[in-house]
Design goal:
With about 210 residues, chain A is mostly helical. The first copy, chain A, folds into 2 domains: about 45 residues, Arc Repressor Mutant, subunit A; about 140 residues, Orthogonal Bundle (Tetracycline Repressor, domain 2), CATH 1.10.357.10. Helices cover about 65% and strands about 0% of the residues of chain A. In chain A, helix 4 runs antiparallel to helix 6 and helix 6 crosses helix 7. About 10% of the residues of chain A have low confidence. Chain A binds a DNA duplex (30 and 30 nucleotides) through loops.
Chain lengths: ~210, ~210
DNA sequence: TTTAAAAACTAATACCTGTTAGTTTTTAAA
DNA sequence: TTTAAAAACTAACAGGTATTAGTTTTTAAA
């Protein structure tokens, strides 16, 4: 996560086939991953560095060889999520398709990230408020950018007659919230596959519950 | 809130027209109200008793004349919300109406509580995890009871052919989540009235976004 | 095997936490 | 005006917080 799928750079030394198992970047990543899980479970303020150290298998103080501060951990997680969302928006905006299709695609990716990275998404959704100073401002701006881009798609869909003429803000937030339970509820093996889950959500939001 | 609309009991002494402005119950209620606002804003773990005292206009220690502990504040808020939800469910279950109408009514009341008591609902939604021991178990049970009651209405609606044959759990959580943004977003004077808000949400969830 | 950097440790820092004890002030009825 | 209870206060507690400094161990290349 956060530096997703970053692979070991094969060294130019022939003697070294694999990088150290405990390289700086990997340990940092482990700390971020465990932090996301713990923050999701107990909240940022409810998680101590000693808790986190316990989970990582390291003294709290030792983690400072890999991270700058507790705040920096939160920042890394939050901006990984916001950057991912914004990239997805940018990709969809470039698509050559109907607005319905664009909304559907963006929503699908939105849900997909929740399934893939539930803990990080949860932290970005719930603990962003503990960001401070510039970082707080930047995060709010990023979120606003995503929301406005998403809203624009809905608005254009309505203007083109593809979507119901509902209040755009209400539609946007209803959609974005409607999928938030995924992060709380979904676990593989809940009796429903990720595909079925996506399809059901799409049906409800696009076609409604009533017959 | 929590002891909603409890009115001053007119004393049997004729000399006393009004109760003291700072009676024990009122001060306690003020503490609970300010706590709900603060917990919503900064989280339970992120709010100190000194923060709360500052907001109430009282030393932290002085509040212990009115409350038992910080945990008890959280319990009062959470159970006020869960009790309200469960009463609403019980009322709707007694109704003589179609399942669509029942689902709609329950959802309307659900949204109404969010509009009326956003801070308390927010705390019950986000900070319940800081409840401990019995209280945590009881709260989870109450939530489960509400969710199962709500799910039963949807299930019966599907069985009666009134609602789309979607996965009941997905429908339930999509609906319950869909309205959660109200607590984060809605403020009177946002350019949309509570009635319009309710109507728009109902339209999207019952009829869908697509035309 | 030597060497030096990286990553772990222990100990200590200054500060913040919820809560209690004891005291003073406020309130409201006698 | 007296009295007693209620509600505020100050001071202190024991323990938790993130973080730093200094030291030892581990790692991996020379």
């Amino acid at each position: 996560m956060y530096v997703k799928h970053q692979r070991k750079t094969t060294s130019n030394s022939q003697h070294q086939l694999f990088m150290a198992k405990r390289s700086k970047v990997n340990q940092r990543q482990r700390i971020l991953d465990e932090a996301a899980k713990l923050f999701k479970e107990k909240g940022f303020a409810g998680t101590s560095m000693r808790d986190l150290g316990g989970e990582v298998g390291m003294e709290a103080a030792s983690m400072y060889n890999h991270i700058k501060s507790k705040d920096e951990i939160l920042e890394s997680i939050c901006f990984y999520v916001s950057n991912t969302y914004i990239s997805q928006l940018a990709e969809v905006e470039k698509m050559d398709a109907s607005y319905t299709k664009k909304v559907e695609t963006l929503l699908r990716r939105h849900v997909y990230l929740m399934i893939e990275d539930g803990a990080a998404v949860s932290v970005a959704n719930n603990d962003w408020k503990y960001l401070t100073g510039d970082k707080l401002i930047q995060f709010k701006e990023a979120r606003k950018r995503y929301e406005q881009g998403f809203a624009a798609l809905i608005e254009q869909g309505i203007a083109a007659g593809e979507l119901q003429p509902v209040n755009v803000s209400v539609a946007l937030f209803t959609i974005l919230s409607a999928v938030r339970w995924v992060e709380l509820w979904y676990r593989p093996g809940r009796g429903i596959s990720a595909e079925d889950l996506e399809r059901n959500i799409m049906t409800i939001l696009l076609n409604g519950l009533a017959k």
